Amino acid sequence: MQFIDLAAQQRRIKGKIDARIQTVLEHGKYIMGPEVKELEDSFAQYVGSKHALACASGTDALLLALMAFDVRPGDAIFTTPFTFISTAEVVSLLGAVPIFVDIDQATFNIDPAQLELALKAVNENNPSIYPLPKVRTSSPEQTQTLRLNPKGIIAVDLFGLPADYDRLNAMAQRENLFVIEDAAQSFGARYRGKMACSLTQMGCTSFFPAKPLGCYGDGGMCFTSDDGLLELLASLRIHGKGHHKYDNVRIGINGRLDTLQAAILLAKFDIFPEEVELRQQVARRYHERLADLANEVATPTVPPDCVSAWAQYSLMAKDAATRQALQNRLKQAAIPSAVYYPLPLHLQGAFSYLGYKEGDFPVSEDCAQRIFSLPMHPYLEEQDQETITKVLLAPDSKA
Ligand SMILES: *Cc1c(COP(=O)(O)O)cnc(C)c1O
Q: Torsion angle, CA of 281/216/259/239, rounded to 10 degrees?
């Protein structure tokens, strides 16, 4: 059994993928070929955003977005520690400071109430209100908390479920902050009638193979309905170009999506909306079958008015030992499972320079101890799900 079965998907659309690749091989425009524009147009339409800009990865999408918002050293960017490293890595890469905000245990997404406290703590430069990073100035002797400039929020749609954007956007507007939607896991999801990637001024997604919509390599995309931001993104993506490639008006990156990856995504997109529906069925079946295991694990909840893209189907075991026992049992039955994420970002070595400590974000830390994910993809057969849930429900679990 596979955690994510990309081969099953490929069998359905092999002919289309081959034909799309063949077209690229014939026209030979491997960089910024016509498929890139075609992809941007159809994906912008799909998510209901005015513009889309394809790029080399989800990480580059986030980096380009921060650069378009002119994020620089001393800026404070609020985000969650319970996410993949990229979300906060790009903040540090630009010399800005990630301000971690704990998550809501029910959704695994940034908790607006905690964000309110973190905003107050930064505005008043008072870490007794909420844990703040102990950022040092360039001289190592100085250890006082720097006065930071609150600039933006990166909310993550973890496991495919959109964060609470009505509340986040309202807070951001009040505080004059931008909001970036890290939709790397939520392409295809919905929030109150709108598609993921279109829920703030700037949505960023990833086409890493294991994401809800993946290419056969690295890829990503930014979405915005702001003409000015689109223009900046387009320049930053190609070395800060001005009127042409050899007119460089700002510092940018080489952040293009390969034409071949765009071609593959176009072939896969034909069946993507159907795959999002299939993921709903898979999630529903897990949900029903695992109801009997309610004393051991909690199944994921989707708030009303939301549709998850189900990048992961994640369970919360009642404690760390129960998770270990259940994962062991799955392993013995040759069923893969995974832990996203075993260590929250504030405890990662890469962010030790921020001076956060254990206990700063208790919900994230608790989730890291108890969470685990089951196989999830559109082609997971009912029989396989039966096997998985039987193993989880086996009576020897009480031993
Ligand atoms: C995968 C992921 C990214 C990064 O995407 P890449 O395409 O791998 O660079 C960023 N944020 C989150 C939440 C992700 O899951």
A: 100
According to DSSP, the β-strands at 149-156 and 178-182 are parallel
Residues 6+ apart with CB under 8 A from 324: none
Angle in degrees, CA 162, 167, 172, rounded to 5: 105
- Sign (positive or negative) of CA dihedral 131, 203, 302, 3: negative
- Ligand 1, residue 60: give the atom nearest the CA: 9
Element (H, E) at 93: helix 86-93
Say if strands 75-79 and 97-100 run parallel, antiparallel, or are unpaired: parallel
| CA-closest candidate to residue 128, choices 118, 137, 138 | 118
C-alpha atoms less than 13 angstroms from C-alpha of 329 in its C-beta half-sphere: 20
Give yes or no for a cis peptide into 341 (omega within 30° of 0).
Answer: yes
Task: List, run by run, the mean pLDDT of 10-residue segments along the chain (399 residues).
Answer: 93 97 98 98 98 98 98 96 98 97 98 98 95 72 70 98 98 98 98 98 98 98 98 98 92 98 98 98 97 94 97 98 97 97 98 97 98 98 97 71
> How many Å apart are CA 201 and CA 102, to the nearest integer?
23
Q: How far apart are CA 30 and CA 230, in angstroms?
A: 23
The position carrying tokens 């919509």 is: 213
pLDDT value, residue 134: 86
Tell me 163's DSSP state. Answer: -
Q: Whose CA is nearest to atom 5 of ligand 1?
A: 58
pLDDT of residue 137: 52
State the distance from the centre of ligand 1 to the C-alpha of 46, rounded, in angstroms. 20
Residue from 86, 89, 180, 364 whose mutation best tests the ligand 1 pocket (most atoms within 8 A of CB): 86
